[in-house]
Design brief:
Blueprint (H helix, E strand, L loop, with lengths): L6 H25 L16 H4 L8 H13 L2 H13 L1 H6 L7 H16 L2 H15 L2 E2 L4 E2 L9 E3 L7 H10 L3 H16 L10 E4 L6 E3 L13 H18 L2 H19 L20 H15 L4 H22 L28 H14 L8
Antiparallel strand pairs: 1-2, 3-4, 4-5
Helix pairs in contact: 1-14, 3-4, 3-6, 3-14, 4-6, 6-7, 7-8, 8-9, 10-11, 10-12, 11-12, 12-13, 12-14
């Protein structure tokens, strides 16, 4: 086993996996190739394939399906995931609505398909997405722009979870250009996004002519200088993955620094993250999705540290997972979504304290990791 689990922890992971199997089989049959996002009253009513095919979360449902296919070998998961993958071709046709989130969209759909089945059409889709992401690179500032419109110098920490698409393209094509772009971008964010105490800016605004730091807006957190919890987790997991793909020690050190800050903050609230660690005490807003993403990042770090350190990161991941399971998981197979109390951002109400698809994805990935049943899709 990759992780030093105690007997009780292994039993919890196995029991949770059994619940996941029952839940996702029912969801796969019920939801099919719809692309879900937020469940309302236990139902995925909206289909992003119809309402917003370029939405950044559209890869997480097929990602869960590929994880289950890899773990269980049941063809219905692969068949359904591939139907979603084919629907995402419409997003390529729109093109101008795509941002840096093409990694989130196609790593877990097309690239997952290619990695698991060798599907050549899926490989082409993944490479198409990788070329789009590399095309957003600013060679003067050494960063990948995140958004479109008039925001040519805006970069968000979420982008660290998209650059694994470039590392994959580098490997598949044998072309180091993709790795250079990814590393330049990671280095720039390491300089301007990660603070000395391990907290992170969500957004940085760079001069597109020079790369000079101009501003650090609030983004999805409370305010400039605050600490949006899911932004911290994008850095934890993103830099741990950057280390996996490059072996650069500074990336692992950065992941650990942000992880230590995150662990300290969530220890104060029983393993459930606040939306922003530096927001006012009232009102209290939670985001369980940050905990699930952090759990995956902590388990990734655990794979790259000496044996004496593994337990620290594994235990921290388990604390987040078990707290979410105890308080906010819905295992009823007749209702859609697993994890409640997710929040998209501090300021928005429509996606506050709701079940969000990526919370489920990271929960599933983390549990499968603990049992050595996962496949790395990043």
């Amino acid at each position: 086993m990759r992780y030093p689990l105690k007997d009780g922890e292994r039993i919890w992971a196995e029991e949770t996996y059994a619940k996941i199997q029952k839940k996702l089989k029912a969801e796969c049959l019920r939801v099919g190739s719809k692309i879900p996002y937020i469940a309302r009253n236990g139902v995925y009513e909206e289909d992003k394939a119809e309402t917003d095919i370029i939405w950044w979360t559209n890869g997480f449902w097929p990602g869960m399906l590929w994880q289950m296919y890899h773990a269980m070998g049941e063809e219905m998961y692969a068949d359904t995931a591939r139907e979603v993958e084919e629907k995402l071709d419409k997003a390529f046709d729109i093109y101008t609505g795509l941002h840096h989130d093409v990694g989130f969209m196609w790593l877990h759909s097309a690239v997952a398909d290619y990695r698991i089945t060798g599907n050549e059409r899926s490989k082409a889709r993944g490479l198409h997405a990788a070329h789009l992401l590399a095309g957003r690179y600013n060679p003067r500032g050494k960063f990948i722009r995140s958004w479109n419109r008039d925001r040519s110098g805006w970069v968000i920490v979420d982008s660290m979870m998209n650059i694994p698409l470039l590392f994959w393209a580098k490997e598949v094509l044998g072309d180091p250009r993709f790795g250079f772009v990814a590393e330049d971008h990671a280095d720039t964010l390491m300089k301007y996004t990660v603070r000395t105490d391990g907290s992170c800016n969500h957004v940085i605004v760079l001069d597109p002519e020079t790369g000079e730091l101009l501003d650090t807006p609030a983004g999805q957190g409370y305010a400039s200088g605050s600490s949006w919890s899911r932004g911290q987790t994008w850095a934890i997991y993103g830099y741990a993955l950057a280390y996996r793909h490059t072996g650069k020690q500074e990336y692992l050190d950065t992941a650990k620094k942000v992880a230590h800050y995150f662990i300290a903050q969530t220890d104060r609230t029983g393993g459930i993250p606040l939306v922003d660690f530096r927001a006012p005490k009232e009102p209290v807003y939670w985001d369980t999705t940050a905990g699930m993403c952090a759990a995956c990042g902590l388990l990734e770090i655990a794979e790259h540290v000496p044996e004496l350190e593994k337990e620290f990161y594994t235990d921290a991941a388990l604390k987040l997972l078990q707290a979410a399971d105890e308080r906010y998981c819905n295992w009823n197979p007749d209702e859609d979504s697993i994890l409640a109390m997710g929040s998209g951002s501090y300021a928005t109400e429509h996606d506050r304290h709701v079940p969000i698809i990526y919370g489920d994805y990271y929960l599933v990935e983390a549990v499968l990791r603990l049992l050595d049943k996962d496949i790395l899709l990043w």
